[in-house]
Design a protein that fits this description.
The protein is built from six helices and no strands. By secondary structure, it is mostly helical. The chain has a single domain (3-168), classed as Up-down Bundle (Ferritin). The longest helix is centred in the last third of the chain and has 31 residues, at 113-143. It is elongated.
Amino acid sequence: MNKKIEQAVNNQINAEIYSAYLYLAMAAYLEDLSLTGFSNWMKVQYQEEMAHAMKFYDFVYERGGKVKMQAIDEPQNDYKSVLEVFEKTLEHEKQVTASINSLYELAVKEKDYALESFLKWFIDEQVEEEASAQELIDKLKLAGQEGPGLFMLDKDLNARQFVSSQAEE
């Protein structure tokens, strides 16, 4: 693994851990509102992002590289509404998509075919992540920001469970 690729993958590990940290902060915000289903959805996101970080971590070592942990920025902790949380989620997932795409472009430029192959799963995953966030935004707009619709959606989201990324491959 060349040093340029190694540094870029280490940056992606940091981005994935930041994503996890962001979703845990969002979970706490939603928990404070007693929206345990929405909080559960974010906790599952947290778990998924940590699993993604570990996939990159393992990839570095499988390729003979070295992982270098970096500082994690403080995430936003307060929001105006549940809708804003999910709008920020979608915005963030689009940033992650751009980061994965840039990493893929670097892999192509550096002719790192193993990284190209590895990233295909993440590219597909980002399509799913963006669609999932958009679906919740749409449902929140339909259900409204308060009342029975919000609580029904909250109840539905309580059923979401983490599935190991190993099973997703």
